[in-house]
Write a structure and sequence with these properties.
The protein folds into 3 domains: 36-323, paralog of FGE (formylglycine-generating enzyme) (Alpha-Beta Complex), CATH 3.90.1580.10; 344-386, no CATH class; 390-535, no CATH class. It is built from 14 helices and 11 strands. It has helices at 3-12, 83-86, 118-125, 127-131, 152-169, 189-197, 204-208, 330-345, 354-364, 368-431, 442-478, 480-499, 505-521, 527-535, and strands at residues 43-46, 52-60, 71-75, 89-93, 107-112, 183-185, 256-258, 278-281, 297-300, 316-317, 321-323. The chain is globular, with a radius of gyration of 29 Å.
Length: 536
């Protein structure tokens, strides 16, 4: 049965039931089926006709007190096969929403937990009917199927319809602030891929992997050709597979999801200058197993060649995000302007920065052409300063992680070496005693002895290298500017470890920071001092 026929049947069954706009009358399986797996949605918003839509909160680690701070990400993949489209690239992300308790380390946005379903589409298309006092009957099982055959223009219009309905009927339930509120739209490619990879719920290594971490096979997480030995001919029920680490369902397969911005080629790691057609992400039920990865993207013609109408493939689906305006608030705009100027004015006390001198020249210049050239140079200075800051932050983050791992390695080697040296000595006494030459287990003892004796110098060499590396890592962060940078980064770094589930590493990182403080007081430590420091 096609979509239009299903909806015409539903509409014919409308009954007169008063329905408060804010009330949710649907069974949970039609708006949050994943709740049955004990993973409850972070946010549930009402829909017309007694429906609802579930959202997950997607954390983006940045300093929310700095309005220009954003998160640098490496997306794409290193495979050159589709490098013109999917190759590695840097991108930036920030969420519009803030929790006061974590404002110095975190922002967030919301992404729909599931693809838009047939029931939700019907509710949005018939909002006026329901608001007039009629309520569509309870959704049928088929209404859990992802809504497909939607064009990009349909998706944009539905986002408008839903936002305007929420503003009119449930304004207090929309995330926002005192003088601003969020709105529904399609996700950007960066928002989609960051979420698909698992965001801050996975380790940095898992984030860069082709697929998010899975328990079992990709068949358990996606609907595609050959999944579980099946060849589906249409999109399936939302939430019928396992979720990704952020609690999002069907990020791979089922319906390929429409993206907000047009397609752009990858020009050796940056977005190409020509804008193209529409973009879908994640693959669909017609995709192959090899298409089930986070970097997968596809361009479609905006208008179908055969009909001249807006492209609306049977595989196209929708997943909304809740976003917000950036600089329409007067208070926000003042913060942006202040932060922007600080990018050019910060410098050591008592010194005159080149950017200050340049600003003076700009202020004094009366020739428009020369002034424009100087302003372009000032902007270039600002961009280069930002790139430098990002590189320094990345170096300190790497030092925090590698220093902590080196501390663990040293501690392990220090415990291993004497224990195994004693073991080797005991084995040596046995294998060198002529009385044991004829013993049935002599050959086993001799082999263990040789293996242990061979590995001891290897572990000793690793310990020596580790101590040298540890000294360098401590020395790098011993500089006052680097230490200040590390202290500023530390809260968000620990938050990321917490969200990625790397709980065992958190106390090690904290201990490493204390080692940096101790080293700054005694940078001339002996090897034994350094061992004591690393193993405490």
């Amino acid at each position: 049965m096609n979509r239009s026929l299903i909806y015409s049947v539903l509409l014919s069954l409308c009954i007169s039931l008063p329905a408060t706009a804010q009330s949710i009358e649907w069974q949970e399986v039609f708006y949050d089926p994943g709740a049955a797996q004990n993973t409850v949605a972070d946010l549930i918003l009402p829909l017309p006709c007694g429906g609802a839509m579930s959202f997950q909160r997607i954390e983006v680690p940045v300093d929310a007190t700095d309005p220009l701070d954003d998160r640098k990400l490496r997306l794409g993949r290193s495979d050159l096969t589709n490098g013109y489209s999917e190759y590695l690239r840097f991108a930036y992300l920030r969420g519009p929403f803030v929790t006061p308790e974590t404002a110095d380390t975190m922002t967030h946005f919301y992404m729909a937990r599931y693809e838009l379903t047939g029931a939700q589409l019907t509710a949005l298309e018939n909002a006026q009917v329901c608001d007039a006092g009629e309520s569509i009957v309870a959704p049928l099982p088929l209404d859990r199927l992802s809504a497909t055959s939607l064009s990009w223009f349909d998706a944009v219009a539905l986002g408008q319809t839903y936002t305007e309905w929420l503003i009119a009927n449930a304004p207090d339930q929309i995330p926002g602030g005192q003088d601003w509120r969020g709105f529904l739209r399609l996700p950007t490619e960066v928002e989609w891929e960051f979420s698909a990879r698992g965001g801050t719920a996975v380790s940095p290594t898992d984030f860069t992997a082709p697929q998010f971490p899975m328990t079992g096979r990709v068949d358990d997480y996606a609907r595609f050709q050959g999944a579980g030995g099946a060849s589906p001919s249409r999109a399936g029920p939302t939430g019928s597979v396992a979720p990704n680490p952020l609690g999002l369902f069907d990020m791979y397969g089922n319906a390929e999801e429409l993206i907000l911005e047009p397609f752009r080629l990858n020009a050796l790691g940056r977005a190409h200058g020509q804008l193209g057609g529409l973009v879908t992400r994640g693959g669909s039920y017609l995709s192959q197993r090899g298409d089930m990865y986070s970097a997968h993207r596809k361009e479609w013609q905006m208008y179908a060649r055969s009909t001249g109408l807006a492209q609306a493939q049977p595989t196209f689906g929708i997943r909304f995000v809740i976003a917000a305006d950036v600089s329409t608030s007067d208070s926000f705009l003042r913060d942006f302007q202040s932060s922007w100027r600080e990018r050019f004015d910060i410098g050591p006390s008592g010194t005159v920065l080149p950017t200050d001198l340049l600003r003076g020249l700009i202020d004094d210049e009366i020739d428009p052409a020369r002034r424009a050239s100087l302003e372009a140079l000032e902007l270039e200075f600002g961009i280069n300063e930002r790139l430098t800051e990002e590189a320094l932050d990345a170096a300190v983050r790497a030092a925090l992680f590698s220093g902590s791992m080196t501390k663990l390695t040293i501690t392990d080697d220090i415990a291993w070496l004497p224990r195994n040296q004693n073991y080797a000595d005991a084995l040596g006494e046995y294998v060198n005693d002529p009385l044991n030459f004829d013993q049935p287990d002599y050959e086993l003892y001799r082999q263990n002895y040789e293996d242990t004796v061979a590995v001891i110098p290897v572990r000793q060499a690793r310990l020596d290298a580790g101590l040298s590396a540890y000294h360098s890592q401590l020395d790098l962060l011993n500089d006052p500017d680097q230490f200040a940078r590390m202290s500023a980064i530390l809260p968000s770094f620990l938050d990321e470890l917490q969200m990625a589930g790397q709980f065992d590493l958190i106390p090690v990182v904290s201990a490493f920071v204390e080692d940096v403080k101790d080293f700054s007081e005694r940078p001339d430590m002996t090897t034994n001092d350094l061992i004591d420091l690393a193993t405490n």
